[in-house]
Amino acid sequence: MMSKKHLKLSDQIRRAVRGCEFSLCALSRAAEIDKGAMSRFMHGKGGLGIDALDRLADLLRLELKTGTRPGKAVKHGKRRQ
């Protein structure tokens, strides 16, 4: 099980959407994302394209922070041991 510190990016975005001041309908409209696609994403039943995720991140003022998790980094197509 992943700790809160290491949530998947999609789970972090879902958390930010749930915690924002906009309704799901208003957010999907503002981000130009189909309401059905947004609903499926929020329920973990589908994904969103990078362009849609970019628009969501802009609306929610999200920033990506990078870091290395032990054993998860990929270098030249191979996992680090």
Sum up the structure in keywords.
mainly alpha, 434 Repressor (Amino-terminal Domain), two-stranded antiparallel ribbon, globular
How is this structure best described in words?
With 81 residues, this protein is mainly α. The relative contact order is 0.14. The model has no long low-confidence stretch (mean pLDDT 84). It has helices at 9-18, 24-30, 35-42, 50-60; strands at residues 74-75, 78-79. The chain has a two-stranded antiparallel sheet. The chain is built from four helices and two strands, in the order ααααββ. It has one domain (8-64): Orthogonal Bundle (434 Repressor (Amino-terminal Domain)), CATH 1.10.260.40. Helix content is 44%, strand content 5%. Strand 1 (74-75) and strand 2 (78-79) form a beta hairpin.
SS-based structural class?
Answer: mainly alpha
Low-pLDDT windows of residues: none
CATH topology: 434 Repressor (Amino-terminal Domain)
Mean pLDDT, rounded to whole units? 84
Name the CATH superfamily classification.
lambda repressor-like DNA-binding domains
Fraction of residues in helices?
A: 40-55%
Number of strands: 2
Secondary-structure element order, N to C: HHHHEE
Topology:
Layout: H1 9-18, H2 24-30, H3 35-42, H4 50-60, E1 74-75, E2 78-79
Antiparallel strand pairs: 1-2
Quick description:
By secondary structure, the chain is mainly α. The protein has helices at 9-18, 24-30, 35-42, 50-60, and strands spanning 74-75, 78-79.
